[in-house]
Amino acid sequence: MKLPARPAVLLAVMAATACAPQTSANSSSDKDDKTGTLRVWLFQEVGNKPKEKVVDSVVAAFEKAHEGTEVDVEYIPVETRAQRVKAAFNDPASAPDVMEYGNTDTAGHVKDGGLLDVTEEFGDWPEAKDTDPTARQSVTVAGKVYGAPFYVGVRALYYRTDVFEEIGLEVPRTMDELASTARRIRAARPELYGLVVGGAYTYGAMPFVWANGGEIATGKDGSYTSAIDSAAAQKGIKAYTSLFTDDNCPAAKCAGMGGNDTVTAFAAGKAGMAIGGDFSHAAVEAGKVKGKYAVVPLPGVRAGSVAPAFAGGNNIGVLKSTSHRTLAVALMRQLASKKTQASMFGAMGFLPTFSDVRQQVAAKEPYVKPFARTLAAGTRFVPASPAWAQIDSSLVLPTMFQEVISGKKSVAAASKDAAKKMDDAFGTAG
Amino acid sequence: MRSVSFVRRPWRLLAEASALLIAAAVVFPLYWMVLSAFRPAGEIESSTPRPWTSSPSLDSFRRVFEQNEFGRYFLNSLVVACTVVIASALIAFLAATAVTRFRFRFRTTLLIMFLVAQTVPVEALTIPLFFLMRDFGQLNTLGSLILPHIAFSLPFAIWMLRGFVKAVPEALEEAAYMDGASRSRFLWQILFPLVFPGLVATSVFSFISAWNDFLFAKSFIISDTSQSTLPMALLVFYKPDEPDWGGVMAASTVMTIPVLIFFVLVQRRLVSGLGGAVKD
Amino acid sequence: MTAHGRMTAHGRMTAPRPWRRRSTPWLYLAPALVVLGGLLVHPIYQLGLISLFQYTQAQVSGGEPTTFQGLGNYTELFADDQFWQVLLATVVFAAACVVSTLAVGCALAVLLTRVRAVPRLALMLAALGAWATPAVTGSTVWLFLFDPDFGPVNRVLGIGDHSWTYGRFSAFFLVLLEVVWCSFPFVMVTVYAGIRAVPAEVLEAAALDGASQWRIWRSVLAPMLRPILVVVTIQSVIWDFKVFTQIYVMTNGGGIAGQNLVLNVYAYQKAFASSQYGLGSAIGVVMLLILLAVTLVYLRLLRRQGAQL
């Protein structure tokens, strides 16, 4: 048998037809159809049914008002949203017209060229003037508006009132007390996690870093330098990761958890405390712990202070590739309107982005108070850089926490590696 | 049974006992899957799982079939798998005939290329394939799943079929031509039936790869859920709330059964087929 | 395919029959070549090309121009400690899978020849069941069997709520079990078919000479089965080196802090999770080259046996 080196021929043929890898011509569509089907992607939340109900009524009204239009809503899982959205940007033909996106993704989506600039339409919208400034900032990139804020999300401390009473515990007032309270719960009730934490729960972990004076990164307007390995940040990382022990939340179980997992565990009555958002309210209410829990702001380092929370939340945007520009913008307004936000609050506990609506609902529903207080105490945001989407989706921070939790690396080493990865990302994408 | 004759009796009994034990161990995961699918709500979450259930229930299956268009996904999967099996079998048959019954330039090169092609990590090609499908407007269609799977199952199919085609004696071909049969008549009416067992054995592999596909469906079916396939439907039960183990197991059962049926049907041919394929 | 054209033109003038014989193979090969060229060779070429470019989401969606980087992605990759760790883990894991699969498969194939029809059918059907199980469902079921809260394994072993997916080695071990479970049937069935093809007189003669079972296997069966063993080994290497679904599903995309990543999943994560398509493609190319090397070894083995392709 002879084995001739013929593949070379093939290589030559391929080289002859060489061309650069493709890019998609993701220009905005010129078409503006006034009828047809609008495709909408919204996030699938923990306990999604009430959300679907509100959306269904908005859609029904919209279809009635615009004859000849149909709205096709799909709920996409939050964990894999990045891949779906990317695919949509890559192939305008399969992209939705309107979609929900996390406010941490705004800069990245704009840089990828996926979102439509709706500055004008947003300005013309009478309701827009009541949008609170933080929320407004979350849809703005370089002075242009790329969507309408949908809700704000902040996290606070959920705790089990029945468990606290039974063991005779006080609500923790500092972070140290939080840790010791958590251990006492686990000691008294070994079947419960004290404070349920997750190694992949970045926004539950960051308050510990911020409360200790640390930052993810420093800088402004695109040029950022990572600061996650600073002494203060390391202190926060240490505080958070030291909660992953057998006397609170065993690493073997908790290291892999994300935010939803911790909320699920709390709602199922498996934890004494959890860090959950206003948006988790409906899910917890639907769980076994209904009527047996309360919420307070997450305590800071000093007694009486509040740990800075992450100013999360989602927006509704229109995709550049839409061929129904007018309709899509109209639908965006309907989905993010005061009326929808008020009913969404009733259904899911999503905090409205309009200051006046928020005040109204806070007056009616006492559970909003701790979240409103957390908001008032000052919130933080992730670096407003397009690189953040990449840092987020390549799991830089969860990896760092998990490396420390599982004892693979020291806090110093893990945070240094994470800082390096982040700087690389800022360098290439920022 | 010939090899049994010279094995001493106690040893044979021991061997048979262990064969049965191993068979039970191998089948246990499948048994557990089916069992969990039939368990009534609540029993799955029990912390003392028993290897049987007192009151089998169809609730999990009901949930699965009430899932949006589950039947449609099932059908889509079936269409994809069957198209891939038939198309790749025919194409591979022709190619295998070419490389075994003819001598021509580049023959060895081609054979080596077919071998090398088997080693290509499919997952890595998802990126370029995505762009290819987009440029041909195939995204969100079943075609975007069928075409790559035909391509990926071909090299192995050709490689395996070679043995079968080779096993058909040359004399038969000569005789056919003597009788005045045309080349295509020989190909389809004489060679094809003879090689058929091999085709069946080969198609097992293309069926599995197409039926199991998860990555392409996830990457290429972006917005048209009516074109989704079963593995995607399975994912629906991994809700962030609480994984619905009953639902997952019921959907898995539904997904596994067609392959099982297929395997049992072709079992005999598979065994003789694999033996034939590697004999050369 | 210029060679073919030339031959055609030449052949037609002299004799009709050689013409048919020469062009027919290409006619038969045409569909396969078209499909493979378009959907395999071309994408591989694209893969290699992308690996030479700075190619992230911004370039893909047209926000920024693509820039040629030469071997930039490769230097970045080789400078990354994680890559070497993942590479090592992949090689060791694949080797463990191959060895276990072959050992289990061959042992059971021999066992099959020693038993009567009923146990043989039982084992054969059980193995076919495992083989038929789709990778996604197989992974899910095994994960469920070893679930710390609801799985039967921990109950039987009495190890409480020990989590199998937390430790690096125990997670790899769990995946290995699943991989062996679903891939030993191929080895078993193939080797069994091979043993059946060995003439009975040879085995009986050896048995009459008083050779032990192990000796019969080593000196009689193994040499006769060598071609088959080479085939199943190489197939196992190719399959196990490319394991994707099992790792992806069972360790949730690569385990705690990426401890259970193997090359295939690593490439996928780089490309699709962090949109570094260039880097992901470079990893894909590295994998391709490694598997190519394995294939070359295979070809050499075949050639040493004097096999005719």
UniProtKB/TrEMBL annotation, chain A:
User: What UniProt keywords are attached to this protein's entry?
Assistant: Signal, Transport
What domain of life? Bacteria
Listed GO MF terms: maltose binding
**SUPFAM superfamilies per the UniProt record, alphabetical:** Periplasmic binding protein-like II
> Signal peptide position in this chain?
1-25
Q: Which InterPro entries match?
A: SBP
Q: Which GO terms describe its biological process?
A: maltodextrin transmembrane transport; maltose transport
Pfam families the UniProt entry points to: SBP_bac_1
GO CC terms in record: ATP-binding cassette (ABC) transporter complex, substrate-binding subunit-containing
Family, per entry: Belongs to the bacterial solute-binding protein 1 family.
Task: Spell out the protein name for this chain.
Answer: ABC transporter substrate-binding protein
| UniProt organism field | Streptomyces curacoi
Automatic annotation (TrEMBL), chain C:
**GO BP:** transmembrane transport
Xref: CDD domains: TM_PBP2
Location (main, coarse): membrane
Q: Which UniProt keywords apply?
A: Cell membrane, Membrane, Sugar transport, Transmembrane, Transmembrane helix, Transport
Instruction: Cite a single Pfam family from the UniProt record.
Output: BPD_transp_1
Query: What's this protein's family per the entry?
Result: Belongs to the binding-protein-dependent transport system permease family.
Name assigned to this protein: Sugar transporter
Source organism of this protein record: Streptomyces curacoi
State the taxonomy lineage: Bacteria, Bacillati, Actinomycetota, Actinomycetes, Kitasatosporales
